[in-house]
Each structure stands twice: as structure tokens, then as C-alpha cells.
Design goal:
Strand content: 15-25%
Distance between the termini: 39 Å
Largest sheet: 9 strands, mixed
Number of helices: 14
Number of domains: 2
CATH class of the largest domain: Alpha Beta
Radius of gyration: 21 Å
CATH architecture of the largest domain: 3-Layer(aba) Sandwich
Strand order of the largest sheet: 3-4-2-1-5-6-7-8-15
Oligomer: single chain
């Protein structure tokens, strides 16, 4: 392979269907990756469609370089809602992908990442594919199962097998994908987060829920059936300490599902104690993380769980299920409680932590230290750059976990 730049420089292209924060973890992770690489001096560009969740579109210039959140991005029109097809993006990729040393794609079963992998393969540019959880057991069995199985056999499978590396964010995500028996080069590389160590006092922003002195249980994620908000509501309803505790549900999702969950809260008699904060970012998100007593994510299946890392970095004890990719990290570092995901299990975990402020402080501090040490943007950026340099040099990425296994 002909080197495109001198030994010290590195130019990377990231491709994803959408960078909208409304799309959840995969989009947030991409923002973090760009920041981590920029701190390392890597020249990184991003290509995406103008998708902004559902049928909405981002108000951005198309097919030109845009500075957004400190990053260089280029947006193309999403011509179909399903699969986010974009012919203009394909033309641009064909004309420009050869200028990069490495291409990193995000997601599967969508046009942008597959088009980027095709173009990179044809141009002889090494590429890394991040499935972003869609190859796990739940995703393959519960959403368009037959279509996905056929698609993997005819389309995604060959691209994954030709990739210089397939990027998983946790060992659990890799193990679930291994059930497909694809001949790939897996690398486990947890996503880093921007950890704010500022001691500055965070002021309650306008529109934040009024909680008084109540302890706050925080759920901060998309509203989706897989997240099991219904189980959380039932567990909360059974708490003996509920009258001095508030449950804040921060997230957005399908309006019909949200309506059913709100009606469930009414039926359970907890409507006055549950606060629906909607999609939270910026000042509201920072305040929620600073105000909460504990964080809970009762998801059936979570390939990573970036909100879990954000909560731990804020010093919150976390409650996750065994289906969360970070469950072993939480257990290993004593950063919270891992439950079986049942209503009884969630209720016991909530009751135990709410009753023991000392345990909350101990777990919260353990999680804060673990994320600062192992999941900071600086640590993540160094590992990601090392991965890029390895695949550019032509080395096969062996199956490995690129993060210390021990504290």
C-alpha cells in the first residue's frame, strides 16, 4: 500500500447516517471519537446525511465543509428515510475516499456506512467498521430478523470480513456478534467520554423539574422498548421510600410509546412523582447528572451504554442489567449494581442504594475514578490512534480488548 502522508501525520474519515443527538448513543459516540482524535492531532473529517431524527432534517449547508461543534463535517441530503440513501454522498465518497489513510464507519443496515466501506475497499484504503450494537442477539432477533439475516449474508458480511478491523465497544457486544460466525478481525475498544472535572457549581436551568429535597433516580437515554422503562416504572411504584424520592425520565422517543408509559405511571398511582424531562442535553443534562442520587438503565440489551459512563464520570452509582455491555465494568470496579432486569431485581437494587448514602458515595467515587482512568477521551484517543496506525501498516487486528482489564 502506498503511504499517503508522512509518518507523523494521519488523516481519517468517519461516516455515519446521522449525527443527530436524537439518534442516541451511536451519534454521541461519534462526536466523542472526533474530539478524542482532534486532541491527538489527527486530521479527522466526518460525512453524514442531514437526518435529524424521524422525518426531521438538520438545518445545515449541504455538500460543503461545515464547522459544527468544533469539528469538520460534510452533510449530504438523505433521499430516503429508510436506510438513509444518498446518491450525492456516494459520488463524493468515490471521488475523495482515496485521500484518507483510514475510514471508520458507524452502524450497519444503512446506506452511508455501507457505501463508505464499498468505496474504501475499492480504493484500497483500510477501513474499520463499528456495528454499533446492531449485530447483537436482540437486534438480530427482534427487528426485521429475516431481512437482516439475508442482508448480512449478501451485503454486510463480505464488507465486515474484508474490514481491517471490526470495532466492538465491549466484550459482550463482540460475544453476541460472534454467534453469527463471521470471519472478522474483532477489536474491543470502549468509547471514551469528555469528563468534566470542573469544580464549578452547576445552577438549575430554566425548565428543570422542581424536586425539592427529594432524592432523585435518574434515567437518561432514548425511550425505546428495549430500554425497559416500563419495568423501571413498576419497580419504582413498589418502593417503600417512594414518597421522598422522585423519578426523572430524561429522553425522547416514539410518541405512542411515550404516551403508553405516561398512562402506565397514572395507572400505577405514581404520576405525580415521575418527571418527564424530555430530551436532555447541555445545561439541563449537566444539572440532572449533578442533582441525581443514582442512575439507572434497565435495558434488555445495550452494546455499550454511553449514558452509563457519563453517569459514572459524574460520580453517580449506577444500576444496570446483565444485558448492558458495561455490566462487567460496573461490577469489576464496584461502581454500582448489576441486576437481572426483572422488576423485583430493579426494585431491590433501588431500595438498597436509596437506603444507604454511604454505599452510594463509595460506588459513585469508584465509578468516577474508573472512568477517568480508563474511559477518558485522552485514553480512548490514544488507543484509537494506535488501532489506526496498526491497520494502516497492514497488520491484522487480532481479537483483543484495548483497555486494561484490571483497575
Amino acid at each position: 500500500m502506498i503511504a499517503r502522508h508522512d509518518a507523523g501525520s494521519l488523516r481519517a474519515l468517519h461516516v455515519i447516517a446521522s449525527v443527530s443527538r436524537l439518534r442516541g448513543g451511536p451519534s454521541v459516540s461519534v462526536h466523542n471519537m472526533l474530539n478524542a482524535l482532534r486532541r491527538r492531532g489527527v486530521a479527522v473529517d466526518l460525512v453524514a446525511t442531514d437526518d435529524d431524527g424521524g422525518s426531521a432534517r438538520l438545518d445545515v449547508p449541504l455538500d460543503c465543509e461545515v464547522e459544527l461543534e468544533g469539528q469538520k463535517m460534510r452533510f449530504f441530503p438523505r433521499q430516503t428515510v429508510r436506510y438513509a440513501f444518498s446518491a450525492p454522498m456516494l459520488r463524493w465518497l468515490r471521488a475523495h475516499v482515496h485521500r484518507y489513510d483510514v475510514v471508520h464507519t458507524h452502524g450497519l443496515f444503512g446506506w452511508p456506512p455501507l457505501a463508505a466501506a464499498w468505496c474504501a475497499r475499492d480504493a484500497g484504503v483500510p477501513y474499520v467498521m463499528r456495528p454499533a450494537g446492531v449485530l447483537d442477539t436482540w437486534g438480530m432477533r427482534n427487528k426485521s430478523r429475516v431481512v437482516k439475516a439475508l442482508s448480512v449474508r449478501l451485503v454486510e458480511g463480505s464488507l465486515l470480513q474484508a474490514a481491517a478491523a471490526v470495532h466492538f465497544t465491549t466484550p459482550l457486544e463482540q460475544a453476541r456478534a460472534a454467534e453469527l460466525a463471521l470471519r472478522i478481525r474483532p477489536v474491543v475498544l470502549p468509547t471514551g467520554v469528555d469528563i468534566d472535572s470542573s469544580p464549578e457549581r452547576i445552577v438549575q436551568p430554566a425548565g428543570a423539574p422542581a424536586l425539592g429535597n427529594d432524592a432523585m433516580i435518574l434515567y437518561l437515554a432514548r425511550i425505546h422498548p428495549i430500554k425497559r422503562v416500563d419495568a423501571l416504572l413498576q419497580a419504582y411504584a413498589g418502593l417503600e421510600s417512594r414518597r421522598s424520592t422522585a423519578l426523572v425520565i430524561a429522553g425522547d422517543g416514539d410518541a405512542a410509546l411515550l404516551g403508553r408509559l405516561k398512562q402506565m405511571a397514572v395507572d400505577l398511582g405514581i404520576a405525580n412523582d415521575v418527571h418527564w424531562a424530555g430530551f436532555a442535553h447541555g445545561a439541563l443534562k449537566r444539572w440532572l447528572l449533578s442533582r441525581a442520587s443514582l442512575f439507572v438503565l434497565p435495558s434488555d440489551s445495550e452494546n455499550f451504554g454511553i449514558a452509563v459512563v457519563e453517569a459514572m464520570s459524574a460520580g453517580l452509582p449506577v444500576i444496570v442489567t446483565r444485558g448492558c455491555g458495561l455490566a462487567e465494568f460496573v461490577r469489576q470496579h464496584g461502581a454500582g449494581i448489576v441486576t437481572d432486569g426483572t422488576v423485583a431485581g430493579l426494585q431491590a437494587a433501588l431500595a438498597g442504594l436509596l437506603a444507604d448514602s454511604g454505599q452510594r458515595r463509595t460506588m459513585g467515587e469508584a465509578g468516577r475514578q474508573a472512568t477517568q482512568r480508563e474511559l477518558s477521551l485522552d485514553a480512548f484517543g490514544a488507543r484509537l490512534e494506535n488501532l489506526y496506525r496498526a491497520v494502516i501498516a497492514g497488520g491484522a487486528a487480532a481479537a483483543q480488548t484495548m483497555v486494561p482489564a484490571e483497575p
